[in-house]
């Protein structure tokens, strides 16, 4: 179905009617209690190591990410001014994906989904 006018005309008309084109908002990620306990135990083990000069040389820092094979993109929606954007949940990690680690050693479970990255 066509309206017989350009996209910019439709966008300008919706904007003049008080609508705005916005993205949905991501729902916040919450850590499970087991994830928090895992992070605390790693931090405590680092603090309990003997204080020696080369301690900092043995710490490996890095980043980890789950990269999805199917990358669902968020779409913009037109909403009247003052209306809250719709919430969109983050992608479930049980879908097909691969684990990407930069600067770490994969050993077991991480705090996000059963993979731990060794810090030392």
UniProtKB/TrEMBL annotation:
Keyword Oxidoreductase on entry: no
Annotated protein name in UniProt: HTH_Tnp_Tc3_2 domain-containing protein
Keyword annotations: Membrane, Transmembrane, Transmembrane helix
Organism domain of life: Eukaryota
Gene Ontology CC annotations of this record: condensed chromosome; nucleus; site of double-strand break
Transmembrane segments: 98-115
Biological processes annotated in GO: DNA double-strand break processing; DNA integration; double-strand break repair via nonhomologous end joining; mitotic DNA integrity checkpoint signaling; replication fork processing
GO molecular function, one term: double-stranded DNA binding
Native source species: Haemonchus contortus
Keyword Electron transport among record annotations: no
Stored InterPro entries: RNaseH_sf, Transposase-MT_Hybrid
